């Protein structure tokens, strides 16, 4: 009997220690903190995925709008080019006597300095002298 009680005690002790370790890990503050951090990490990952999808959607929509705008400008240019001859002829342009606004002689010229500018005065102003030195 005595040996059976010892065996039951050892089995109960091993079972109690195992159950205690499991419960301590489940209900410990470190475990709760770990679970909280893991949930926050998953939320942050989900927010990042959502933000990336929003950015991709924004840029694809912007590219579509710019493409439509380029097509509209191309159509406008073609329209202006096709109808410009119908609106005014070369003879009408010549009769207006419009001179070009920029001539070859009106080109801006670049003036290079002949000498480097002086960053100093030719005489000392005496501004930084002590009162004893000014006399």
What this model shows, in words?
This protein is mostly helical and 135 residues long. It has a domain at 2-90. It is built from 3 helices and no strands. The protein has helices at 2-27, 29-87, 90-95. The radius of gyration is 44 Å and the shape is elongated. The protein starts with a helix and ends in a 40-residue tail after the last helix. The chain crosses the membrane at residues 6-27. Its main location: membrane. Pfam families: ZapG-like. InterPro entries: ZapG-like.
Task: Tag the structure with descriptive keywords.
single chain; 135 residues; mainly alpha; cell inner membrane
Q: Which of globular, elongated, flat, extended, rod-shaped describes the shape?
A: elongated
The biggest beta sheet is recorded as:
none
Give the helix tally.
3
Main structural class: mainly alpha
The radius of gyration computed from the alpha-carbon positions, rounded to a whole number of angstroms, is: 44 Å
Summarize the helix and strand pattern as letters: HHH
Beta-strand segment tally: 0
Name the beta content range.
Answer: under 5%
Please summarize what this structure is.
The protein is mainly α. The chain is 67% helix and 0% strand.
């Amino acid at each position: 009997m005595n040996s059976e009680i010892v065996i039951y005690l050892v089995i109960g002790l091993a079972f109690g220690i195992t159950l205690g370790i499991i419960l301590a890990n489940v209900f410990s503050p470190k475990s709760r903190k770990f679970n909280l951090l893991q949930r926050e990490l998953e939320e942050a990952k989900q927010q990042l995925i959502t933000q990336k999808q929003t950015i991709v959607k924004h840029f694809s929509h912007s590219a579509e709008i710019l493409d439509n705008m380029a097509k509209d400008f191309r159509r406008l240019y073609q329209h202006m080019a096709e109808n410009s001859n119908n609106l005014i002829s070369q003879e009408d342009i010549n009769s207006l006597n419009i001179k070009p606004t920029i001539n070859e002689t009106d080109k801006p010229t670049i003036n290079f300095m002949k000498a480097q500018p002086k960053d100093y005065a030719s005489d000392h102003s005496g501004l930084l002298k002590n009162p004893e030195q000014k006399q």
